[in-house]
Amino acid sequence: MNAISQDSRLLPVYLRELKLAGFRNYQTLGLELDQRHVVLTGENGSGKTNLMEAVSFLSPGRGLRRAAYETVGKSNQSGAWSVFAELEGAQGDVSIGTGLSETAAGVETQRRVRINGTPVKTNDELLDHSRIIWLTPAMDGLFTGPAGERRKFLDRLVLAIDPMHGRRVLDFEKAMRGRNKLLSEENTHAQWLDAVEAQMAELGIAIAAARMELVSLLSTVIIRNNDPNSPFPDAMLQMEGILENSYGDMASSDLENEYADRLRASRWSDKGAGRTLEGPHRSDMKVSHGPKGMVAGHCSTGEQKALLVGIILAHARLTAEMNGFPPILLLDEIAAHLDASRRVALFDMIDLLGCQAFMTGTDRQLFDVLGARGNFFTVHDGKVSRT
């Protein structure tokens, strides 16, 4: 296996300081860190995942819980909250602050981001400084759950290498809501539908293309770094959907025209259904256990977890190769679901990737093998102490 951390062209990216105020169960918190992994141990409900969620807000979107911003503030307070970080980033030292501020009119509902004290025009600017990838227990049902969860998972993977992907997805969803509304109205002018469907077609093909490219690149990384003895089996990935099935057979402009024609032809059926029935919002990512040739959903719980960890590690490698710097990994309750040999392998692989990883668990002993490679903290009732 190639060791990314040995590539001198890669820039180190890691958190050096993290401060919270009014965030979840933290009144205030200040942590000083270095390039080592961060291990957070403590009882369930103590605030370990809350702290990792705070780190996830250093990337665009609603964080690893996909929570509404107004629900993140500490209970029984105004609802205002803040996350501040000093980061050794892809463009050097950077200060990032984000959260909801309290104004004369009340607490804001959209979080603000400041980079080096300057408000940003779009939260996508966070991607100029780091990429953050997470794996949480909520993802354990990814292969057996609804397709929508796999799309969200995939889109987060795409965003780490294509910063514009998130905006395209949001714009498509907005255009689709507009089309659905137009279809629900009486006497809608056809030219209005033509215009919104043309926009959906352009965005939809771009979304499908980005997903297909990610799956292709990720598959290449998995094949290139194949190790029959790895405790994390290779995953076989494939996209399925109306747009994806036609991708590669014709030019993008022709695909856009074909999708726009489909939308035009399906107006009456979509009107009856009350929603748009074809598009990238209906696509799915199929995953199989490579060595066994078995659909991931039919694998054991342990095999599914190992497959998922393998995908995250491969994606971290791809992210580093594409961007020139490793991502920050957030691995929530990772050790409890892996046996001793897989834990050792996971820690060694993260080291090879050159990532700073945040890891949580209830049992400190599960992380002892990290030794001097880890910064160890105990979390109790919203208080964090170094151990």
List the helices and strands and how they pair.
Layout: E1 14-23, E2 26-32, E3 37-41, H1 48-56, E4 81-89, E5 92-100, E6 102-103, E7 106-107, E8 112-115, E9 118-119, E10 132-135, H2 147-159, H3 165-184, H4 190-224, E11 235-240, H5 242-246, H6 252-265, H7 267-273, E12 284-289, E13 294-295, H8 301-323, E14 328-331, H9 340-353, E15 356-361, E16 374-380, E17 383-386
Task: Summarize the structure in short.
It is built from 9 helices and 17 strands. By secondary structure, the chain is of the alpha+beta class.
- Strand neighbour order, sheet with most strands: 2-1-4-5-8-9
- State the share of residues found in helices, binned by percent: 25-40%
Q: Distance N terminus to C terminus?
A: 33 Å
Report the radius of gyration as a whole number of Å. 22 Å
Average pLDDT confidence is: 93
Specify the CATH architecture of the largest domain: 3-Layer(aba) Sandwich
In the CATH hierarchy, the third-tier topology of the largest domain is known as: Rossmann fold
Number of domains: 2
Helices, by number, come to 9
**CATH H level of the largest domain: which superfamily?**
P-loop containing nucleotide triphosphate hydrolases
CATH class of the largest domain: Alpha Beta
Structural class: alpha+beta
Give the number of DSSP strands: 17
**Largest sheet, described in full?**
6 strands, antiparallel
**Model regions low in confidence, pLDDT < 50 over at least 5 residues:** 1-6
Along the chain, the helix and strand elements come as EEEHEEEEEEEHHHEHHHEEHEHEEE
